[in-house]
Amino acid sequence: MDPAHAEPAALTPLVQFRDVAFAYARPARGRERTFAFPGLSFTVERGEIFGVIGPNSAGKTSLLRLLTRVLRPQRGEIRLAGRPVGDLAPWALAREVAMVPQEAPRPFPFTVEQLVLMGRYPHAPGRFFEDAADITAARAAMAATETLALAPLPLEQLSGGERQRALLARALAQEPRLLVLDEPTAHLDLRYQAETAALLRGLNRERGMTILLVSHDLNLAAELCDRLLLLSAGEVARVGAAVDVLEQGLLESVFGCHVTVDKSPSGRPVVQLAYERG
Amino acid sequence: MTDARRLARALAALSLVLLAVGVTALFVGSAELSPSAVARALAGRAEASSVEAIVTLSLRLPRVAAAVLAGAALAVAGVGFQALTRNPLAEPSVLGVSSGAAFGVVLAQILGLSSGIVAALGAAVFAFAGALLAATIVYLVATAPGGLAVQTLLLTGVIVGIFFSAAITVIISVVDFNRLTGVIHWLLGNLGPIPAASLALFAVLAGAGVWLILKSARELNLLALGEEASRQLGVDAERLKRRVFVAAALLTGTVVAFTGPIGFVGLIVPHVLRRLVGQDNRFLVPTAALAGGAFLLAADTLARNVVAPAELSVGVITAFCGAPFFVWILRTRSRPL
User: CB B15: neighbour CB atoms within 10 A?
Assistant: First the structure.
């Protein structure tokens, strides 16, 4: 770990949402009502894997946009390691927080290597070409995500899963303290889901990287995350360990459907739709 | 090979091409001068009043310089607009920005700006304002909330272009024709001889525009991933967009002020280069400057000689190349834009 990341076992949580209120000026495309966070508060501790779950339009993606400062809260404050994110320069924030989006729009066919090298931008915004250290960091990130062999290929030629891993490599090239993922397994088949989960767990354990992920896959979230935040219409329905959050009654009221909750061999809860009762 | 080396090699190769085209342009023309006479004039060993000295130094050389500057400026403006709009078909004439600039120049002319460098500067300022106005309209309409399809941008550009062309026609119809001498010829895109002082101003303005876009090239790569993604990677997207927008409008306005609206250079040159050097704007911008210069110079040399002793407007040549090219790009792209 580089020295900047090794602060004196700071006691402040890595991420703090303090009474964050936000409303879209007008409804997003195809959405009827204006979505809002009335006042959201939660914290993400250093070194944990934190999962955000909840129904569609509960505000999961908006939460990520607020954290990465694509959106600004109308009230309240978001702090990163004790500092308000609003005070950070764009590149300074991108050195701390790296985002893995669901899909990258791709009007121009960049290669995987070019994409991953873009993750080095915040480390030297004034540089025209990346230097040797940047290239080393990018190759390490590609090695960690098994995308080295894809390096010269244009993004258009990749499968959804390969593209997902290339985006993860770009985020790792940022060498962030907090890795943020939006639906990390949405485009992946079973094998790559398992590999991605293992990779994230490895990054968390071996490099102490804090991870915040948004997922529709409740069971993956239960398996992977130390704590879960269940969002319901912009408010915290519950936050805590998977066993406390994935509770039949709570899930049924938030998602509005019938579910059963069992236990996996590892003792984590497993949520299933209860079709027969529908 | 490192990127810097690869770029240096590409630029060296293009410089040779530009040099070859430049030499050809100096040696051919409707005045039938022998190569040795041209060489004598270039070496400064011909009498100042001799035909070879006048044709070579006062007609051909400034024209070569103007063509190179205009071609470089238009090609780089094309790269800039393409990165800004994330649309590989965007370029000054397609977006209607050239028409906006032309409207500015016609307006400057009827306001009766005196001749010489003041007129050149005035025309450049008016052209820049017109380009900025047209680009802003296109941008505001095409990026209205709700997210419009990419073709909307092109359609909006065409409409804005038609609007400004109509406004020019109104001025031409209303104003005493004698005050608009040469406007028709100029509106077709024409590289007449430009006085040295104006040429210097042209070079300064074009250089400033190219520099601003070149400096933003790395950030433009990130912007290609989408505005949200570029911000999450640490780009100050608003500032970047403003800078490139102004620079591309400056380049377009400058070219229109000095040579008239010449279309399609910003489409053809970057598109060919994307195949040769890839999508990286750090390669595209500097290579587009050289290749754009070479392309327009070649087109102008053709325009001067193909129907000699008469002359075609260079804009005619670029439009004849550009229009089929546009259709071809539209049809061969595998994905919908």
Answer: 13
